[in-house]
Design brief:
By secondary structure, the protein is mostly helical. The chain has 2 domains: about 55-150, Cytochrome Bc1 Complex, Chain D, domain 2, CATH 1.10.760.10; about 175-275, Cytochrome c-like domain (Cytochrome Bc1 Complex, Chain D, domain 2). About 50% of the residues lie in helices and about 0% in strands. It has 13 helices and no strands. It has helices at about 1-50, 55, 75, 80-85, 90-100, 130-140, 145-150, 175-185, 190-195, 210-220, 230-240, 260, 265-275. The termini are far apart.
């Protein structure tokens, strides 16, 4: 009988020791699980940013001059940008709110052409709540580096040998694939002309041809007010003299006014070649 009692005590003590061991190991295990889950969330957010946000905010979130502001910038995370607009909540909540509900007008003192669209399905957008969470996690993942680097948006790019605004100047042969990369990347054209309707659509849709086909006749129409005498000059004008002719239904000063200072002749030729390929 005594040995049975002793065996029972040893069993109970063993269970207590096992339970304590599991409890002591649970915290590190949960921390490891959380870190792994957070990493997967940030990775999902990176993919969403690449597909939906990159064309306006830039590949690294540093903003695109005249298109959209930097979000990988110290002034977003140190509170100064939020204070300027009167936001009293956290940066995390601000980022979540802007992604989910959008912003119908740009911040005071800025003149970005494209409003921030609504992305959450709660407000009529395309993203689920978990996808919005992933985007927030990815953007907040920039905080430490942005604060360490300091500053706000990247300074305007100064291009040596910029193409200027002369419509008649000869251009080198253009590469449409590189032009597409420029439009989707550093210039941000796709954000307004492909992904949203801020500017005239470049892609063919319904009975409307693409920008390359439309350029062949637009300069000869009665309502045309620019100086182009052929299709290429019309496309050049639409990039470097953006207010020379405003397509009906759109407003002046929507496009950045300094592409002539930001592009080389090769950049412009490549961009025009891409636009010409859109039929």
């Amino acid at each position: 009988m005594k040995w049975q009692i002793a065996a029972g005590l040893f069993l109970v003590l063993g269970l207590i020791v096992l339970t304590l061991g599991l409890a002591l190991n649970e915290m590190p295990r949960m921390e490891l699980f959380k870190a792994s889950n957070d990493a997967r969330t940030v990775e999902a957010g990176a993919s969403l940013f690449e597909n939906n946000c990159r064309s306006c905010h830039g590949p690294q979130g540093k903003g695109i001059e005249g298109v959209a502001p930097a979000i990988n910038a110290a002034d977003l995370y140190d509170g100064s940008r939020l204070a300027a607009i009167g936001w009293s909540g956290t940066t995390d909540n601000y980022v979540r709110n802007v992604i989910a509900a959008g912003r119908p007008v740009p911040s005071a003192g800025t003149n970005y052409p494209q409003r921030m669209p609504t992305w959450s399905q709660r407000y009529g957008g395309p993203l689920r709540d978990d996808q919005v969470d992933s985007l927030v996690a990815f953007i907040m993942n920039w905080e430490d580096r942005a604060l360490a680097e300091g500053g706000g948006a990247a300074p305007p790019t100064v291009v040596e040998g910029a193409v200027g605004t002369d419509l008649a100047q000869p251009l080198p042969a253009g590469d449409p694939e590189r032009g597409k990369q420029l439009a989707e990347g550093s210039l941000g054209c796709s954000g307004c002309h492909v992904l949203a309707e801020v500017g005239p659509a470049w892609m063919a849709s319904g009975d409307q041809p693409g920008i390359g086909a439309r350029a062949e006749s637009r300069f000869a129409q009665d309502d045309y007010t620019g100086q182009a005498s052929d299709a290429q000059q019309y496309l050049v004008e639409s990039v470097v003299q953006t207010n020379a002719f405003i397509v009906s239904g759109y407003q002046p000063n929507i496009m950045p006014q300094n592409y002539g200072e930001r592009l080389t002749a090769q950049d412009l030729a490549d961009l025009i070649a891409y636009m010409n390929s859109l039929r």
